[in-house]
Q: What sequence folds into this?
């Protein structure tokens, strides 16, 4: 089991407020790793720091053998780290196809890009049907598919998905979760951030529980799913 | 109303000039949400750059040879000034409250005016700019000054080139992405700092084209020329829907036409005989702005802010 991503003692602050207070975790090659926790636990801050949008105040991030904390955001995707952000953030006034092509912005292999666009349409047929439609006109679930498809267009070594189930209907959420399982089976390494702990843990190899900026619990997905404190705090059981 | 075609032609030409300058406001706003109030002065320094090139050429050079060189010099001066302003004045304030870069822009505008006033030879009064000599062209009842031919050719070419750049090139698509969602653009691998510089540079190049057109039209450039021209162009950008490049040109032309028509005809309306003529044209331009902002605050082609989420 080789570690693709190693985070050590990571600290991130917004001004004087420390949002991430020295966390360490590992994402192994070929696995699905999940960060769960309530709103404000620091999960999104962690992902935004990994992709360079925020600068850490302390700690190290090692991705595929390279230190990341000083690499500017726009150079990180080239290293193989793709980020599908919380709230989807598709480019609303561009078409679905243009959105997907922006995901391959740094690639030059036209044939490979065309093939990967078709692969995204295979994964999410609704996107293929609407390829010339402005992305802002899609439903929330469709936008989530587009955000995932766009992130995959860089052929990442590690795919980070921030709250892919947020605001989706149960049916759409199932579809998104099934896609994550499918991607894992294809060998994609995934770092997943979720509030929906039940769904996320049941498809994860490893999980970390975050609370107010710290990791309070870790284990395999199955362990955490059966852990009493997790069941109480996140799965709504007494 | 027998001179209506002439007034329409005047309005179109003036409007194209406003439109070219308005592009600079709208592009920078579209990318960094900054009203670059120094943009009028970017036009002005481009005018002086072109004038300098003209003065450096040996006397007797035909204008057809001089004009391209003047244009290149103007574009160079405007672009370098705008890029330097972005790098040293605006970029350090990128994450500051919005008022800070706005005040900086106003300060920069005054500084550039005063620098030209103080250091450009004889710039304390207007300096003579060459005109394209010869009688106006007569097309039916419409007379078009030879100097305006430059603008009539340059403005559509600039718009076509910009439209092609934004929709067909890699950098253009990166620019659209950056304007719609800068953080996510970075996640795609887009160097947004470079895109911002590009937006300033393109706006400045258009400003220089406008400066040469202005100089040719009016036969002079002066250190204050950017003020009213900039204000009108800003109005045009808002009118067309700020952030939208086609809106900027449409807003410019609407404003130019409104000015020309108001100047020509408003005194014929009942009770309005005191408000006609050139003295009131700026008033009508800004009245139009107020009306548009009341009726359609997002401008003619602008999207409602909610769409930007």
A:
């Amino acid at each position: 089991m080789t570690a693709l991503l190693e985070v050590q003692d990571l600290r991130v602050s917004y001004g004087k407020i420390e949002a991430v207070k020295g966390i360490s975790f590992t994402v192994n090659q070929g696995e699905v790793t999940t960060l769960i926790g309530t709103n404000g636990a620091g999960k999104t801050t962690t992902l935004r720091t990994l992709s360079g949008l925020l600068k850490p105040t302390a700690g190290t991030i090692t991705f595929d053998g390279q230190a990341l904390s000083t690499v500017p955001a726009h150079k990180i995707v080239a290293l193989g780290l793709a980020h599908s952000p919380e709230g989807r953030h598709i480019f609303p006034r561009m078409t679905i196809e243009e959105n997907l092509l922006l995901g391959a912005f740094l690639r030059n292999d036209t044939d490979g890009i065309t093939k990967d666009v078709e692969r995204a349409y295979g994964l999410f047929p609704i996107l293929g049907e609407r390829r010339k439609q402005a992305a802002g006109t899609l439903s929330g679930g469709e936008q989530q598919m587009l955000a995932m498809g766009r992130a995959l267009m860089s052929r990442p070594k590690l795919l980070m998905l921030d709250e892919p189930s947020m605001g989706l209907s149960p049916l759409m959420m199932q579809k998104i979760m099934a896609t994550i399982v499918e991607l894992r089976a294809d060998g994609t390494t995934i770092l997943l951030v979720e509030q929906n702990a039940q769904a996320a843990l049941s498809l994860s190899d490893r999980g970390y529980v975050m609370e107010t900026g710290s990791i309070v619990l870790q284990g395999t997905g199955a362990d955490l799913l059966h852990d009493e404190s997790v069941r109480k705090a996140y799965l709504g059981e007494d | 109303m027998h001179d209506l075609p002439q007034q329409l032609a005047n309005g179109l030409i003036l409007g194209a000039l406003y439109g070219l300058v308005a592009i600079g406001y709208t592009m920078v706003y579209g990318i960094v949400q900054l009203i670059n109030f120094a943009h009028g002065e970017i036009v002005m320094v481009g005018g002086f750059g072109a004038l300098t090139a003209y003065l450096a050429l040996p006397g007797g050079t035909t204008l057809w040879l001089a004009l391209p060189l003047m244009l290149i010099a103007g574009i160079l001066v405007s672009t370098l000034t705008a890029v330097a302003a972005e790098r040293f004045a605006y970029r350090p304030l990128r994450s500051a409250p919005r008022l800070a870069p706005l005040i900086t822009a106003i300060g920069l505008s005054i500084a550039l005016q005063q620098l030209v006033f103080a250091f450009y030879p004889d710039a304390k009064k207007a300096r003579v700019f060459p005109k394209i000599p010869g009688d106006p062209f007569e097309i039916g009842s419409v007379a078009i000054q030879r100097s305006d031919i430059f603008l009539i050719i340059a403005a559509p070419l600039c718009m076509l080139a910009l439209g092609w750049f934004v929709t067909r090139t890699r950098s253009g698509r990166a620019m659209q992405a950056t304007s719609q969602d800068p953080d996510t653009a970075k996640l795609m691998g887009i160097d947004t700092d470079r895109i911002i510089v590009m937006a300033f540079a393109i706006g400045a190049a258009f400003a220089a084209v406008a400066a040469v057109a202005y100089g040719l039209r009016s036969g002079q450039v002066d250190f204050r020329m950017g003020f009213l021209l900039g204000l009108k162009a800003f109005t045009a950008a808002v009118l067309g829907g700020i952030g939208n490049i086609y809106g900027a040109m449409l807003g410019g032309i609407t404003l130019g036409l409104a000015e020309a028509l108001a100047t020509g005809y408003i005194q014929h309306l009942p009770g309005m005989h005191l408000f006609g003529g050139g003295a009131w044209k700026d008033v009508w331009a800004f009245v139009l702005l107020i009306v548009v902002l009341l009726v359609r605050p997002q401008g003619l082609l602008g999207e409602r802010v909610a769409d930007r989420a």
